[in-house]
Amino acid sequence: MLSYDPPVADYMFLFKELIDLDKHRHLRGFADLDFEVIEAVLTESGKIASEVMLPLSASGDREGCTRHPDGRVTTPSGFSDAYRAYAGGGWAGLAAPTQYGGQDFPRTFATAAMEFRSASNQSFDMYTGWGESIAEIMMAHGTADQCDTYLTRLISGEWSATMGLTEPHCGTDVGLLRTHAVPQPDGSYKVTGTKIFNSGGEHDLTDNIIHFVLARIEGDPPGSKGISLFLMPKLLRDENGRFDLHNAVSCGSIEHKMGLKGSATCVMNYDEATAWLVGEPRQGLIGMFKLMNAIRRRTGTMAVGVSELATQNAVAYAKERLQGRALAGAKRPEAMADPLIVQPDVRRTLMKLKSFNEGARALLVWSGLIADIVDRTPDKAEGAAAEERLALITPVIKAYLSDEGFNNTVGAQQMFGGHGYMAQTGVEQLVRDSRMLAIAEGANGVQGVDLVLRKLGHNQGQSAFDLIDEIVAQLAANRTSTPSLSLVEAMAQALDDMREATTYLVGLGSRDREAACAGATDYIHLMGLVLVGYMWLRIAEAATRQIKEDRDESGEMAAKLMRARFFAERMLPETSLRLTRIKASADSVMALEEQWF
Amino acid sequence: MLSYDPPVADYMFLFKELIDLDKHRHLRGFADLDFEVIEAVLTESGKIASEVMLPLSASGDREGCTRHPDGRVTTPSGFSDAYRAYAGGGWAGLAAPTQYGGQDFPRTFATAAMEFRSASNQSFDMYTGWGESIAEIMMAHGTADQCDTYLTRLISGEWSATMGLTEPHCGTDVGLLRTHAVPQPDGSYKVTGTKIFNSGGEHDLTDNIIHFVLARIEGDPPGSKGISLFLMPKLLRDENGRFDLHNAVSCGSIEHKMGLKGSATCVMNYDEATAWLVGEPRQGLIGMFKLMNAIRRRTGTMAVGVSELATQNAVAYAKERLQGRALAGAKRPEAMADPLIVQPDVRRTLMKLKSFNEGARALLVWSGLIADIVDRTPDKAEGAAAEERLALITPVIKAYLSDEGFNNTVGAQQMFGGHGYMAQTGVEQLVRDSRMLAIAEGANGVQGVDLVLRKLGHNQGQSAFDLIDEIVAQLAANRTSTPSLSLVEAMAQALDDMREATTYLVGLGSRDREAACAGATDYIHLMGLVLVGYMWLRIAEAATRQIKEDRDESGEMAAKLMRARFFAERMLPETSLRLTRIKASADSVMALEEQWF
């Protein structure tokens, strides 16, 4: 059985030390924020995560979901009660607009609640957290009536939402979809088709489930230009205004998966189901892209959460498990053996996990703030710049964090030896659950193409160069504040690598898109390392400040500087390897004919 | 459902081109070997793997093993029949001595059969392959009667074997074991204790199961110096000479695991079970270590097998699945989309898998030959040198191949997108099954300590420097035969990195064992890369020779050179990163007190 201590203190450190709140008071919802309220929200969200959701994670994995012959899907025991606690506590609307009943808590801070929830129970988490994302689509593209009817109930958690995107023959290439919609005289549509990989397409947590479905209106052009977005409730309103008419949407089966067994992944059949257009016809992907980007960043958050949970438990095991002796001589001669944590390779692994988790968590906060600026600034120029930045880093946050978060669950599992392979220890479930993160919401390979061709391509890499400039400025500050830290020189090198890689890929991409994309995954990882390194620069500056001001009573700030050093000396040098690969000839990737694979 | 085409042709290429058989005719069993016989054996072993074992892999995973209330354990449906086919075909004794009914097929070639078997069904494979390993222990340490009685039946496959090592409180640190043995007047012992993680400790494939158990004879000293090895049959001989008396050994439960569900992992209770000493008292670890080393190399073979199976299926999917368009313009404009394999990141991933599999397979053959020299040469000096070499590379083969084999199953799974996460596709099982390889038979972190402290330490790195010298000589040959291949320069750099790392670690290890071990895992990976690169040098030389001699009708040799190039340009540069980490200060690993983890 795993235990979990939500990292509230770590978040509060980041909020207090890395974000100058007074510089952001002009953002909507930031004016009256104070740290006491934020800490109270985090503490409560941590409690529901560790006390309500975590205990259902292993049992949910064992029990899984069940589809009954009548098409009903039941979630694992306890999920219904947990959902009631979640919705009843107002968590479904934490970051959603107050206009429809939400609490409008900025993402900068709400990210913490998201991490705690996904760490404690990733399967359960898949049913939640739709409020703010759906609000964005509906407030931008929906009608007032749609917002009043549906959004309010989604934000209260009374109803839940699900996305119908993938079809058996098309995932990434959504333009191939076959689900089609026929306009009806009353303005509604009849939608027919089959969707797969529909997380929470059917379940027993809420009475109504609102399906957001991509489909092609009859007669619209093939490909992605002909795709519209529809709202399709499971339950329709009857003549008395009650939602108790079953729509022609049904779950044909649920998938048996590697992990996330508590999350119902449904095959959904629409058989002339009633639906309403959201936004303009053939503009379905516009709203969906914004939503997808939010979900991609959320995927990064989930990865940090599961990595944190795995790390906490690996650390605990390494301290408890007595096995072998310290190489420099017994540390606990009175015991039958020393704890595993005296072993260098165990420490190396745990330092890797911890230095990732802390730096990546700062990245979540920093990117949350950028997303908040996009949504909440009255200053158009500031908003546009933030949007540019957010577009650049979104694929990195999705892919780099999900790759490394998964790797970290594997690293944590390794600390348990043979016990880590056994189900009862619990950590193997984290490997299985987190494996999905690199696959779903746009497989990581696709994120690389997005970054290298779209995000670098549209302005000759200017967004990336702007980011480099910002980090260079931070580095200059660190040369004053933390001059002796090895992170300073390591980041200087990493930034050189990123600049060279960016210049190279921008040039190459304009001539040969395939060659550029042969290095796309390496570029994602290069930028991910630089971003986490950037966060460590800022953390190190803050920690040094606290130490100088005699505020490091516990010694945690000194420990942070050691983790910064680990990241600098053992993780950051990877940027040079990534650069070497990026600059390698694409021939060894592209030249062989298909038959030689 | 996965498909599998055993790489017989690839092995035959390696046998014919990389091994100069005539230089090894003096080895026992090599005199009359010819390629026709070898190919026939490989073809047959491939057939039983792909036709008999593979079809039971997914069903075995779903069904798992069952422990019945009476303590019996049943394996998944079909395993019994498959075992009969395996034993009936004489495969249990393929590499075992003829003296006891084996076929004495050298490991150099038998490795292929081992790879095919583990690729097709890793769970099933766990029950098999004991013949040759047990033969080594028993012929060296057992009595003639023990060999006659037990070894013959193990080699015929009539009976099976299992190892009782791990206890609930001790895995790696076997010296802590509590199982104890009390001598009896008739020369036997009564053994009492509990073992865990006992693969195949109980099952229904054979009537009798021979347990090889580590225990401490009453009164013997604590720690690893007091450990003896016992032979403990499940069924004892009755007064009529029939083996039908149940020994006091029983299965208390079986584990629920992440994968390998068709393999029964048992908790075994010995309750004054009758057992006989194998070898001298308190010398139990000597025999066990030799066995463990063979099993560690076998683990590397299993990793290559599962990586090959995953790769073959990922390649097939990438060629079939139509999704998206080639970045340089549609490749199949008449179809709804192009196959995934036109995408650079898909190709990059598949080239990585294939360049690993091929090079790693050559490494299995090469190390199999070294093991054969140890066992089969009449020349003592040659045998001693081979033993030194084998000791050096064993931890690398175990840890590097298992780490990368697992990573490759993850990479292959990624090619399937969301479908790869679903059980029915089959590839997620490979991720779960292969995850065990880095954990079992000495977790990979322990392999690093073995390499850096023991294998480098005992002769100041001379074994490693000898290996470097051998590769330098090969490199000189390649400078003539394949001068334009980028592999030549890449290997020169990689060898420099290995030499520098070795010198550094030998020096550091003599002063500060903990600091040296902070870089142990990196050193394992560095040497693994160099070894696979070495194999690619030899493959490239052979391929170039075939091309020059107009023997490359199919074009496969030219494709091999491209895979060599991929390995050189995109994999080998990792040695420099590994060196950087090895030379990084150990402070960031060792300095923090336990409380800061």
TrEMBL record, chains A, B:
Annotated keywords: FAD, Flavoprotein, Oxidoreductase
GO terms of molecular function: flavin adenine dinucleotide binding; oxidoreductase activity, acting on the CH-CH group of donors
Acetyl-CoA dehydrogenase-like C-terminal domain: residues covered: 484-592
Domain Acyl-CoA dehydrogenase/oxidase C-terminal stretches: 320-447
Acyl-CoA oxidase/dehydrogenase middle domain mapped to chain residues: 163-271
Cofactor(s) required for function per UniProt: FAD
UniProt record similarity statement: Belongs to the acyl-CoA dehydrogenase family.
Function statement: Involved in the assimilation of dimethylsulphoniopropionate (DMSP), an important compound in the fixation of carbon in marine phytoplankton, by mediating the conversion of 3-(methylthio)propanoyl-CoA (MMPA-CoA) to 3-(methylthio)acryloyl-CoA (MTA-CoA).
Name of the protein in question: 3-methylmercaptopropionyl-CoA dehydrogenase
Organism: Sphingobium terrigena
